[in-house]
Amino acid sequence: MNETKQIAKHISGVLLGGNWTCSNLKDTLKDVTWQQATTQVYSFNTIATLVYHLHYFVCAALKVLQGKVLDSKDSESFAHPPIASQADWEAFLSEIWTESELFISLVEQLPDNTLWEDFVDKKYGNYYRNLHGIIEHHHYHLGQIVLIKKILAQQKL
């Protein structure tokens, strides 16, 4: 298996399942209601905010892989649209899974030598750094989401 296919497998593992940690975003969110997703716990970000934040960076990288301009701003990465119903939440998740699968597919198709090229600009590092950064970022916030779910379960929400 070449390097980009292996990276795509790791991205798929943290997003959709099948990794050795047995923890992934899709399975973690499958039983989260829109009320749980939008409930503030202590001073933490909500689950919905964390999910949006994670996906924001997937979308930014997806645009680059599609040959589009990188126009994302860190300051916008937590500003998700309102989620006012279960239908809103499910539509949001459906969009995430669709775009995630496209992202994984495009990573898998990258030539291995692309991994060592600048990701748009030298200041962002190379593709390898950015793709692995997305994996690391997902694992970090996935842990937060799991903890928030446990707190909400204790509160019987």
Kindly summarize this structure in a few lines.
The chain is an all-alpha fold and 157 residues long. The chain has helices at residues 3-16, 25-29, 34-37, 47-65, 86-109, 127-154.
Q: How would you characterize this protein structure?
A:
The chain has helices spanning 3-16, 25-29, 34-37, 47-65, 86-109, 127-154. By secondary structure, the chain is mainly alpha-helical. It has a single domain, classed as Four Helix Bundle (Hemerythrin (Met), subunit A) (Up-down Bundle), CATH 1.20.120. Helix 1 packs antiparallel against helix 5 (86-109) and helix 4 (47-65) runs parallel beside helix 5 (86-109). The mean pLDDT is 95.
CATH topology: Four Helix Bundle (Hemerythrin (Met), subunit A)
Sum up the overall morphology in one term: globular
CATH architecture: Up-down Bundle
Query: What is the number of beta strands?
Result: 0
Number of domains: 1
Q: How would a textbook summarize the main sheet?
A: none
* Terminal residue distance: 44 Å
> Number of DSSP helices?
6
State the order of secondary-structure elements, H for helix, E for strand. Answer: HHHHHH
Low-confidence stretches: none
Structural class: mainly alpha
Radius of gyration: 16 Å
**CATH class group:** Mainly Alpha
